[in-house]
Amino acid sequence: xxxxxxxxxxxxxxxxxxxxxxxxxxxxxxxxxxxxxxxxxxxxxxxxxxxxxxxxxxxxxxxxxxxxxxxxxxxxxxxxxxxxxxxxxxxxxxxxxxxxxxxxxxxxxxxxxxxxxxxxxxxxxxxxxxxxxxxxxxxxxxxxxxxxxxxxxxxxxxxxxxxxxxxxxxxxxxxxxxxxxxxxxxxxxxxxxxxxxxxxxxxxxxxxxxxxxxxxxxxxxxxxxxxxxxxxxxxxxxxxxxxxxxxxxxxxxxxxxxxxxxxxxxxxxxxxxxxx
Length: 276
Fold this sequence. Notes:
Shape: globular
Number of domains: 1
Radius of gyration: 25 Å
Number of strands: 12
CATH superfamily: Vaccinia Virus protein VP39
CATH architecture: 3-Layer(aba) Sandwich
Strand order of the largest sheet: 5-4-3-9-10-12-11
Largest sheet: 7 strands, mixed
């Protein structure tokens, strides 16, 4: 059969020349990096007093964190190790999560738990500004003894504020206070985070929530008893819960290695197979 020259040859290889005279696509302004940079331009930052690296803190809040708790910084730098999964429970604006990410880089993973509505945005801003989004995962949940729905009681409403309490409005001294705001919140235990929600199990934990540290540790018994868990730094009130925490840690195979005491509270450091 003769094929007209004006008819398409169905046996010829198919080619596409594409449209002509079409300008190149404009640069995307909704790419993640561009969106983050535009957002961060609206926020003022100031450096933390951490001497090893520049860490930017949103609105200049908690810039004195390294000098305020040098023992916590030392624990981050010496007790952690490559491959660790750190749970920072009561992260506030994330100062010590940022120190850990700065010192250890991508060799560790950090989950920073902060339920406070005024502190959590600052935590996220700090993570973004310092380029740690692949290391630190901010988690906007309170941690407690078990899965529950209860009130998160704010002792104050200023950015960077602390001394809040989940459940009952009782502070670290055991004193009942009148909340400035009650925030209904779903909480979860450490063991439920691991077993029910498949979050990587912690190998290290910093715990400072100014109220229910003992309850949180009771809800973390399986994680703390796991041989892969190595070290805990917990702020505890000497008169209220230091002794029961020590007894619980002993049951989990963790010994007390050091205490840095303040006026009413202290930072207690536990390690597997260490201390008493």
